Amino acid sequence: MTETTSGPARGSRSKGSKANKGLRIERIHTTPGVHPYDEVVWERRDVVMTNWRDGSVNFEQRGVEFPDFWSVNAVNIVTSKYFRGAVGSPEREASLKQLIDRVVRTYRKAGEDNGYFASPADAEIFDHELTYALLHQVFSFNSPVWFNVGTKQPQQVSACFILSVDDSMESILDWYKEEGMIFKGGSGAGLNLSRIRSSKELLSSGGNASGPVSFMRGADASAGTIKSGGATRRAAKMVVLDVDHPDVEAFIETKVKEEEKIRALRDAGFDMDLGGDDITSVQYQNANNSVRVNDTFMKAVESGSSFGLRSRLTGEPIEEIDAKALFRKMAEAAWACADPGIQYDDTINHWHTSPESGRITASNPCSEYMHLDNSSCNLASLNLMKFLQDDDAGNQRFDAERFAKVVELVITAMDISICFADFPTEKIGETTRAFRQLGIGYANLGALLMATGHAYDSDGGRALAGAITSLMTGTSYKRSAELAAVVGTYDGYARNADAHKRVMKQHSDANAAAKRMDDLDTPVWAAATEAWQDVLRLGEKSGYRNAQASVLAPTGTIGLMMDCDTTGVEPDLALVKFKKLVGGGSMQIVNNTVPKALKRLGYQEEQVEAIVAHIAEHGNVIDAPGLKPAHYEVFDCAMGERSISPMGHVRMMAAAQPFLSGAISKTVNMPESATVEEIEEIYFEGWKLGIKALAIYRDNCKVGQPLSAKKKEEKEQAEPEVEKVVEYRPVRRRLPKGRPGITTSFTVGGAEGYMTANSYPDDGLGEVFLKMSKQGSTLAGMMDAFSIAVSVGLQYGVPLETYVSKFTNMRFEPAGMTDDPDVRMAQSIVDYIFRRLALDFLPFETRSALGIHSAEERQRHLETGSYEAADDEVDVEGLAQSAPRHVAAQKNSGSSSQSRSGSESAKEAHSSTELVEIQLGLNADAPLCFSCGTKMRRAGSCYLCEGCGSTSGCS
């Protein structure tokens, strides 16, 4: 445990502090007299990052120094994102040592200057322990720390900002300016527009007010113009409006109407893809929108009664509406375009530690930080897998004691950072220094749960997640109370002491009431209970240093820096992963957590190997040899044939929420088939379960998605300039009596069928016959009708390419594995049929643009990097030279989890998301990275690029 001791007071202290002490820092990982750098093996690597779509080099720095256990991806991202100095200059950082020293030495000096340590020896232990934890990927600060700390530029450490705006033109223009400055620095901000009077109210001059929705246009245009941090991504922002604002219906409909505009313009031939030339004409696309609902409204929805919209000037109701109808409109809008999300005002403010200083009205763009207006929060996240250990008997345990010690270390460092931090506006600086909001969190929860044999959507999984979250926040506030005894409480504490202590008691009571499930979570709950008892005891005596301690952030880029398999509170993406190899190349592996999970569940080594081999081949655990069906749920993921249900995500959020100061950055993904009623249920259950904020995303609800450069070029080439319009009637070209044909037998998801495709003598497809099931059945009849319709269309001149582009990726049952080596997975019978027809009848260039290749072509791409056969002889010598490198890379991976046949897929893929698409035959609804062209994956409420570490809005 950390102790305090008397000593000379140094540096600034909060008002009213009589403390004259310093912390004694305990060693966790380090050895006296040995620097952490001397305990690892260092090696030099070359970092060359390219845009795989056009081959251009995005970044290059050779000879960088990292520990040998850091992955290629982590090295690439840290080198390209966090090393400071111009590339090629002597000032450019070239070693992880330089990066960590730049940050840690700044923290140590600020801690010494401000009286945090009892002695120079304690300061050195703090230095070494912080270095060790960063070096070994135990935790990471948020990106602004790595960008700014220890440099000559302003030392901004916060990633999360909340602004405010009042009902005056001066305040509105200040909002535009302040938001722009935050975007310029690479961060995002949120605010509540509900103080601005509605368009149904009068100005002092007698005219109608513009209303907040009108002013949103100007802010949206500003955000779209200012590239965040000079990067090619849009700014991140959150706009909140209270449910009782008279313009709430217009607010709800803003994005729905713009989505309809996108569709109309796209159909008219405009380039409306994300990043396209014409998408800038669409409004309101640079912000996440959320409606702030209160208990009164939700109870009116529950009872089916009316609800009053209130004047911003007088607070009096000016219109009565049907609460259930408005709630329905919110769900319909979210179904159509994923906005607005929902925030639960009374729940949020029930857990507010500083209500005497103002209500919590808004959040940061990702919804995890919720506190006072004009404030900020710096983040840090712990890698949970670093605390999973095997005891002497070979049984798993979560090392709660070491976890708590690391939390104490990190919270101390985070609070120190506020002493030297710079802020984008003076108002934000004043509020943050007065309330000292921190946001400790974690990553790799999904991997931890799977490795311990817990299903993500299970009572045991939720119990372990809740216990860890409770221990983290309890330990954080315990350290906050110890810091208050050393360097004083936060300035706003005296005014809010009763409320702060009340919230601490709420957390403690929730911890006591939580359900204990098994041998893994019970010891963690016990440690958390002890921590909360210390919180109440020490807080009563000394108060608290921080108004907020914990949140669950997306952990996008820093999650990759820590080599985490999962981000934030998210489950695993899929059971197969895309792994980059040292020296270039890539391969597919089965998640390393899978063997650990199987061992925890009691499977023998031979069984584990067989199950892993099945996953490597099929991408899922269904029908894996020897695996009990009751254990399938342990391996459920965010994507795939056994994906976690939307309510499973909501229940996990509810398990962690009572033990967090702030909230959780998470979007509940829903299938394209989800209904408006299901969205209403999720929004309603979120309120019942005590979640603070919630957002949903229905697959494929958005029109704009980025096209690859190749597809854009093809699109442009396929649109010749039209000089005049010629009307004509198509003429049917019938096939001759004698016609060549191909008959194919196939199986899709266990359903058998036959397809006969007949051609014109000049080798063009002319008709298709499909035989499925028994004659007279509904399926057989529909297939007959479908094949006739397609055949007639072909004979009237509809290109086969058109049918292929329309019907591939169509999803319905039966679906799954096929017996066709060229089309291993099909999302439906129709998907299989048109992929097969494309392979048999379309030229290579046409189907390659559609992403359809034969098994032989995929193998050729694996060996040569090209799908096309070379015109000249095969370079046997070159292939022979390349073979050992590939074999060595497979051997050096050191994991029995690697796929025997999956390297082919990995060669085609450029991220785990793309690999899952290939392996499982589905289409992930995610954007392409603006920087490197890789398909991104969901991280909290934004998207993360595994290739280069870029995010779609979160730092």
From TrEMBL:
Q: Which InterPro entries match?
A: RdRp_reductase_class-2, RNR_2_N, RNR_lg_C, RNR_NrdJ/NrdZ, TSCPD_dom
EC numbers listed for it are 1.17.4.1
One GO BP on record is: DNA biosynthetic process
Per the record's keyword annotation, is Ligase included, yes or no?
no
Pfam families linked to this entry = Ribonuc_red_2_N, Ribonuc_red_lgC, TSCPD
* Cofactor(s) named in the record: adenosylcob(III)alamin
The chemistry this enzyme catalyses reads:
a 2'-deoxyribonucleoside 5'-diphosphate + [thioredoxin]-disulfide + H2O = a ribonucleoside 5'-diphosphate + [thioredoxin]-dithiol
Domain annotation Ribonucleotide reductase class II vitamin B12-dependent N-terminal: ranges: 47-137
Recorded GO molecular functions are: cobalamin binding; cobalt ion binding; nucleotide binding; ribonucleoside-diphosphate reductase activity, thioredoxin disulfide as acceptor
Keyword Nucleotide-binding listed? The answer is yes
Q: What class of enzyme is it?
A: oxidoreductase
Instruction: Quote the function comment for this protein.
Output: Catalyzes the reduction of ribonucleotides to deoxyribonucleotides. May function to provide a pool of deoxyribonucleotide precursors for DNA repair during oxygen limitation and/or for immediate growth after restoration of oxygen.
Q: What is this protein called?
A: Vitamin B12-dependent ribonucleotide reductase
Low complexity composition bias: which ranges? Answer: 893-904
Q: Which family does it belong to?
A: Belongs to the ribonucleoside diphosphate reductase class-2 family.
What residue spans carry the region label Disordered? Answer: 1-24, 883-910
Q: Which domain of life is it from?
A: Bacteria
Question: What organism is this sequence from?
Answer: Streptomyces rapamycinicus (strain ATCC 29253 / DSM 41530 / NRRL 5491 / AYB-994) (Streptomyces hygroscopicus (strain ATCC 29253))
Ribonucleotide reductase large subunit C-terminal domain: from which residue to which, for each copy? 158-697
PANTHER family, alphabetized: RIBONUCLEOSIDE-DIPHOSPHATE REDUCTASE, VITAMIN B12-DEPENDENT RIBONUCLEOTIDE REDUCTASE
The UniProt record lists the TSCPD domain at 739-839
The alphabetical list of record keywords is: Cobalamin, Cobalt, Disulfide bond, DNA synthesis, Nucleotide-binding, Oxidoreductase
